[in-house]
TrEMBL record:
It comes from the Eukaryota. InterPro entries: Glyco_hydro_beta-prop_sf. The lineage of its organism: Eukaryota, Viridiplantae, Streptophyta, Embryophyta, Tracheophyta. This is Arabinanase/levansucrase/invertase. Residues 59-90 are annotated as: Disordered. Residues 72-83 have a biased composition (Low complexity).
Amino acid sequence: METALAASITNLNSSSSVIKRHHLYPCYTSINSQKSPKFNYRYKKSIYFLTSCSTKPDTNKDNVTDPNSIDNPSLNSNLQNSPVPTSTQALSSVNSSFSRGLVFDLGQKNAWDCAEVGSPVVRRFLSDEEERWYMWYHGSSSKIPGSDYIGLAVSSNGIHWERGGGAVQSSVDVGLVMNCSKDWWAFDTQGIRPGEVVVMSSSKIRANSAVYWLYYTGFSSEEAEVSDALLKFRLENPERLRICFGEGSENCGIGKIYKSLPGLAMSQDGRHWARIEGEHHSGALFDVGSDGEWDSLCIASPQVVFHKSGDLRMYYHSFDLKKGHFAVGMARSRDGMRWVKLGKIIGGGGNGCFNELGAVNAQVVKNKKDGTYVMAYEGVAADGERSIGLAVSTDGLKDWRIQDSPVLKWSEEDGWDDKGVGSPCLVEMDGEEDEWKLYYRGTGKAGQIGIGMAVSSGSDITSFKRCQGFHL
């Protein structure tokens, strides 16, 4: 089984590095290279574009079209005509047949995601005949330690999910969909985690339907050099914050901090991905900040919001070495590929606050009812506890109003997530359901790891309650 899993991951790497060639045709159209950003699939022999032009009316040479429109006929057609995936696995129980809020457990033994799951990116698609839920997430296997991969699960209601234990083989499968890069020069050879999936069309991408844009964190084997011995906690990237206290605290120092950068991949089915080379020499979209800047250590959890045509915003986090806390910053783009940093927007909270050591894994959505921007983020307390906080801005750029208390804390009733919660993903429900769903990664004191869901009280997003009644 171990050999089979390794083989499936190896096969996926070769197939997901570019969109399959039978979907691609040579591009003979006239493109002004002076105005167009560098747009290369990581395929060195030739460059291919997706077939046919977008017919969306709000498209021009420099801008992308609104990805939030449910009325996109090509997208709805794809959802209606795609068969429901059949590769399913039952959720396993965590010490009982009932766990409040848990909707997605670890994969079965020897599956690609049997050791860890997290970073949920959940999207709900509506058509005239059905609703379809997609969840991209990262996972890792105990058989291949030290690497994270990206997988896809699907659902008809956002509660019961169908998943696969190996690599996808077709456009209707579920399971492992993206592997680490095998190119020695790339920024994502050590691990990958999803940050955001945006569905949109662009004149830069010639496709007969909307395209999935996956923004993700890529980790390389390059370690950042940090010599600040005054830090009171063990800092690692991917972030695993361990506070130093009690016996053995004298041995606490700086752990391995792998360099991470933001990347972009595209797909026509959400399963087979083509990496897009950014302007950085490693293929990333942009680099860390210069020495002394707040984001000089790493760039992690890129999450992108479509504001309007020609205006996309990316939110990401890093660790501010000068301030000694995590922070969220942002960048802006006209085409989703070339980005300009705008600086830090949220840092650490006050003494004793749930976010005293800052914010990570932020997710921003635009409230459809009042037009404000809502940020859910993972707050880091001084004792290392993780909970989910909320901030609101009228324009998504500045003046973020941070709620004093977390909207979701770890379970205090010996639940599966009684150690910490984080990596939030908000979904605003359409239609008759006037509520928000909050997906999150939870961890337990006994070592449990899973993805949970909580629901707001109507349209009030200041607090969430874990859903009850899920029999696992």
